[in-house]
Amino acid sequence: MRAADRRASIIDAATAVFAESGFQRATMAQIASRIGVTEPVLFQNFGSKPSLYAAVVEHASGQIATVMRTFAAETDSIAALLAHLLSPGHIDELHAPGSLGVIFADAMTLTAEPAVEQAVRRHIGELAEVLTEVVIRGQEAGELRADLDPEAAAWMVLSFLSAHRFRSAVMPDRARLEDHLGA
Question: Which of 47, 89, 102, 123 lies at a C-alpha separation of 20 to 30 Å from 117?
């Protein structure tokens, strides 16, 4: 297998394992087992578990950005797309075990790992850029207020999505209140 193909297969397996188990509980042995290699192969390719996780963050960000751009290009309503992104059902789905949202939620707790922190800053910033483009399209279509700062709106959406654990833990009548917050 070519080196690039091996790295891609490791990242795919690691993405699945980290999304299912989280960074702390996932092991390099689980990832290696998933693709039929030994743990040293993972370390030869990525050096450490945090470095592999950083590559997973980059990979997941690319996947999410592609999906968002595709949805935005195919939708008749940017406002409806944003309402869907902020709906309680979508947010629960985004944070369900095995989903890519788990990667980012987990990454927020790993700021002591420099490789992960750098990857999160860079790639969440890229997702904010995609959302900024979406907001601008909504403004151009007349669906969103013209005086809305697109970049601030993008970061507000990301902040709302990332605060799921907090709201799940403490918010009473979360489904009803999240509908209102999203609106």
Answer: 89
